[in-house]
Design a protein that fits this description.
The complex is a heterodimer. By secondary structure, chain A is an alpha+beta fold. In chain A, 28% of the residues lie in helices and 24% in strands. Chain B is α+β, with helices and mostly antiparallel strands. Chain B folds into 2 domains: 4-79, Ubiquitin-like (UB roll) (Roll), CATH 3.10.20; 88-158, DNA polymerase, domain 1, CATH 1.10.150. Chain B is built from 5 helices and 5 strands, in the order E-E-H-E-E-E-H-H-H-H. Chain B has a 5-stranded mixed β-sheet with strand order 2-1-5-3-4, with helices on both faces. In chain B, a hairpin with a 2-residue loop joins strand 3 (51-54) and strand 4 (57-60). The mean pLDDT of chain B is 97. Classes of the chains: A alpha+beta, B alpha+beta. Chains A and B meet through helix 1 and helix 19 of A and helix 2, helix 3, helix 4 and helix 5 of B. Bound molecules: FE2/S2 (inorganic) cluster (FES) (2 copies).
């Protein structure tokens, strides 16, 4: 994709303003339709039977009594799905949606029913008889790595895993450069410490939901809340053994995802139930199911060793990261290992990551997957070293900060990046010099995220009356329709209100990657701008035809085609609406489109600063003040950029202080509800201040970088550093819940 | 199973429905009456996405039985606009970008309206504690609180 070298000089008219979002009225009036808000004539209700055991062989499933119950129209088990799915990762997805030989965690789906009502379906579930052979289980990452740990799978480790390790170790990753031993030899001080983080859930407020209709002609329609309906189509088609083109998926409005809706749970089951029943089937998860069987992120156990010279220069960094990602391979330890030291310009650095399986639900991506825990470990260690050497923690980070030209710890060389800018801004901010009271502490930390681009299609159509519709294929999870409309309007030179952006179903566009990797404003934005440019070229062509001059004698400026150049002649400019009005006579409808595998997503860095107060009696921590400094490249709609900063910070605060999956000795999840899995509420928090920095991304025509994920990377460490200073004891195990903090204070 | 016949008032209009004895008001609103603006985030009273007003009192519709609506008045998000005019809270939520995904928004709006009816001039702390029963996972609450306080200020001026 061609780069726009004038990125920095550009003056924007619409980009950078804060117009109202196009889906706003629907969302404040209750009209917006989310996953569970759709129904169909003759619709059945589908429910899932889940294993109560963390690890068990499924000897048999008897569904006859359930099937013969009045009102039950279909029962499915794994036997209804194709016996073989070629792609290993997709085979795992199927096994996660419906257990095969073994139930691998508490909550694993083993059967499903479709019935005329929820009450009938619930009664039918009770009539399904599953004979289990209980097996020993393991839910802790370090225990799962012991050679004698109960094994979930046999012979699934990839070739990177040395012989003799536990069968639960699936892969080993290594990154870095230089010679860390030489680096440590140069250090004045070497710190070695172990850290742990517990598994957290994305905690989207909307449970998974879908409505499936499978026709007897083999064509199917699916409505669901997802971060990527093209992914849903491709995954379901593979799992069900059908052609992708025969399944049309429409994305509902989505009530949060944060990575947790980048895979499927209910969708293939609903399709199969509908196929068997011959009627539409709606499935909606309850909250306990969401906790037990979807999402969570990995828990981690990390050892860090960092060497520092007296002046704060990091001479070497090493980290060994162990992540359990639930019952299947694929924990984000690779990305944790890549991102752990990414903010720093290090001569000698190495990370080793171990991907481990346990009897827990299959992890799903959670906002910057893998990075927050790694940053927690490394940023805590840097903070501790800075303290010990009597150095300013922001100065230490500035001294080591990655810059343009730095060879990143995970390989590539950075182009223009904004870490240094966030650190300088943080140093100059009044927050940094504000006084603290007793039992209060201030923490800072940096964070990094890669950001992605990927497959993207946009179709931009000009209507006969001169309004514009943009069709894109990425569910709008936080205002992206507004951003696309803004970029299209900016490029075309027309008012924002003249553009309407819609999310097209899978039948309308080519492949679109999932709304993840902070890719949408970057990649779909880029494709929207390119589609608008294509439409402009076409409109210039039409004007040339009308004026009977050469095509290249027409330019598009300020929303109109204008003659340009010596031989163009004098013609009054033709606006988009004027050209659209006569399109029939100049060649037919006008559109622009762009299909691209977008590259050049710029990485994004942030620095977070937080003040906390510790109650030494109860172990409770209060967040007093919080400021986010992050590089957005170019903030298209600053209010939604701020929202991403604030939302990520608060999720990180929850991860640092409260949220954790708690398993009993029996391997069952003990807190599968919002009462016991406590996410931050309004009264826990102050305002979250934000400072947007704009260091343009050279890979995007307007300089945009993804912003959605970086914001959850620094808060774990920032909060832990602040609490450690307030309590006078280093906290190395998240969440810092009151019992854990009291124990640490007691052990001082 | 015989069903219960319920006569009630929803958003100022007479309504009737049949429901099972164990059915929640939330199920009735969503599945029998097509009022899907109230959301189910948990079904256990922990998230506030199902917030409605029952005889003037803010409740979680997931914790009320449909049959309990008999002879009472129910207010839902669908009743918040008058004609085309948005309630000031709805407008301020849009202006402040107080929603990202929007699934929590109906619950917050219903709860915030109940707050401002009792406390027209809430402090930030009062607003935060009143809304502590409404979970939002997207916004970190900052813009929601600002929108509520701004709407309160505007409504006071209008009086
Ligand atoms: S659905 Fe009623 S409180 Fe969550
Ligand atoms: S805006 Fe998504 S939960 Fe509040």
């Amino acid at each position: 994709m061609a780069l726009d070298s004038k990125t920095e000089a550009r003056k924007f008219k619409i980009v950078g303003t804060r117009p109202l979002r196009p889906d706003g009225i629907d969302k404040v009036t209750g009209r917006a339709r989310f996953g569970a808000d759709m129904s169909a004539p003759g619709m059945l209700v589908g429910l899932i039977l889940r294993s109560p055991h963390p690890h068990a062989r499924i000897r048999s499933i008897d569904t006859t009594r359930a099937e013969s119950m009045e009102g039950v129209h279909a029962v499915v088990t794994r036997a209804d799905f194709p016996a073989f799915v070629e792609d290993e990762a997709l085979a795992d997805v199927l096994d996660n949606c419906m257990a095969g030989e073994k139930a691998l965690y508490d909550g694993h789906a083993v059967a499903a029913v479709a019935a005329t009502s929820g009450a009938v379906a619930r009664a039918a579930l009770k009539l399904i008889e599953v004979e289990y052979e209980l097996l020993a289980h393991v839910t802790d990452v370090d225990e799962a790595m012991r050679p004698d740990a109960p094994a979930l799978h046999e012979d699934r480790a990839d070739e990177t895993v040395p012989a003799g390790m536990s069968d639960n170790v699936m892969a080993r990753h290594e990154f870095g450069h230089g010679d860390i031993d030489a680096g440590f030899a140069k250090a004045d001080r070497v710190l070695e410490r172990g850290y742990r983080t517990e598994a957290t859930h994305q905690g989207y407020i909307e449970p998974h939901a879908c409505l499936a209709t499978f026709g007897s002609d083999g064509q199917a329609d699916l409505w669901c809340c997802t971060q990527g309906h093209y992914m849903v189509r491709n995954t379901c088609a593979a799992i069900l053994g059908m052609e992708q083109g025969r399944l049309r998926v429409t994305a509902s409005e989505i009530g949060g995802g944060f990575g947790g809706k980048t895979t499927v749970f209910l969708e293939p089951v609903a399709l199969m139930l509908s196929k068997k029943a011959g009627r539409p089937v709606k499935m909606v998860m309850g909250r306990a199911e969401v906790f037990r069987a979807t999402g969570p992120t990995a828990s981690s156990s990390i050892d860090v060793r960092i060497g520092m010279a007296k002046d704060g220069r990091i001479t070497a960094g090493f980290a060994e990261l162990r992540y359990q990602g639930g019952a299947y391979p694929g924990s984000p330890v690779d990305m944790g290992s890549m991102s752990a030291f990414a903010p720093y310009d290090l001569e000698h650095v190495k990370t080793v990551g171990w991907d481990v399986v346990t009897n827990r639900p299959k992890q799903a991506a959670y906002r910057a997957p893998g990075a927050p825990m790694a940053a927690f470990a490394v940023e805590s260690a840097i903070d501790e070293l800075a303290r010990e050497l009597g150095l300013d923690p922001l100065e230490v980070r500035l001294k080591n900060a990655a810059r343009e030209g730095t060879r990143a710890s995970y390989g590539p060389t950075f182009p223009a990046i904004g870490l240094e800018a966030t650190l300088r801004k943080a140093k100059d901010h009044p927050h940094w010099s504000a006084p603290l009271g007793p039992n209060q502490g201030r923490g800072v930390a940096c964070g990094f995220w890669f950001n992605f681009g990927g497959d993207t299609c946009v179709s931009l159509n000009i209507t006969p009356d001169g309004t514009v519709t943009v069709s894109e294929g990425n569910p709008d999870i936080g205002g992206s329709r507004a951003s696309m409309s803004m970029m299209a309007a900016e490029e075309l030179g027309i008012p924002y209100e003249k553009v309407r952006t819609i999310i097209a179903d899978t039948g309308a566009l080519g492949q679109n990657d999932v709304t993840d990797g902070s890719r949408v404003t970057f990649a779909v934005g880029l494709a929207t701008i390119e589609a608008a440019r294509a439409a402009k070229r076409e409109m210039c062509k039409r004007a040339a035809r009308i004026w009977e001059i050469e095509e290249d004698a027409v330019v598009w400026e300020d929303g109109a085609a204008r003659p340009a150049g010596p031989n163009a002649g004098k013609h009054p400019p033709m606006s988009l609406a004027e050209i659209a009005a006569v399109a029939t006579n100049t060649g037919g409808p006008i559109a622009g489109h762009c299909e691209v595998n977008a590259e050049g997503a710029g990485v994004s860095f942030a620095t977070h600063m937080v003040d906390t107060e510790v109650d030494p009696e109860t172990g409770a921590v209060k967040i007093l003040r919080y400021t986010v400094f992050q590089d957005a490249g170019k903030a298209v709609h600053p209010a939604y950029v701020e929202g991403q900063f604030q939302g990520g910070a608060v999720q990180g605060i929850g991860w640092a202080l409260n949220e954790e999956y708690i398993y009993g000795e029996d391997g069952r999840l003990q807190n599968a509800g919002f009462l016991d899995y406590r996410i931050p509420v309004a009264s826990d928090l102050p305002m979250i201040d934000t400072v947007i920095l704009e260091i343009p991304n050279p890979g995007h025509p307007y300089g945009v970088r993804g912003v959605g994920e970086t914001s959850i990377v620094p808060p774990l460490a920032a909060v832990a550093n602040a609490v450690s200073h307030a309590a006078g004891v280093r906290l190395t195990h998240l969440p810092i819940s009151p019992p854990r903090l009291l124990a640490a204070i007691g052990a001082k | 199973m015989s069903r219960i016949h319920v006569t009630t008032t929803i958003n100022g209009e007479a309504a009737e429905f049949l429901c099972d004895a164990g059915e929640t008001l939330l199920d009735v609103l969503r599945d029998r009456l097509g009022l899907t603006g109230s959301k189910e985030g948990c079904g256990t009273g922990d998230c506030g996405a199902c917030s409605v007003v029952l005889d003037g009192r803010l409740v979680c519709a997931c914790l009320v039985l449909g049959a309990e609506a008999e002879g009472r008045t129910v207010g839902t998000i669908e009743g918040m606009t008058t004609g085309e005019a948005l309630h000031p809270l709805q407008r301020k939520f849009l202006e402040h970008a107080a929603l990202q995904c929007g699934i929590c928004t109906p619950g917050f709006l219903v709860a915030a309206k109940a707050l401002l009816e009792r406390t027209p001039d809430p402090t930030e702390e009062e607003a935060r504690y009143w809304l502590a029963g409404n979970l939002c996972r997207c916004t970190g609450y900052d813009k929601i609180i600002r929108a509520v306080l701004d709407a309160a200020a505007e409504m006071r001026e209008a009086h």
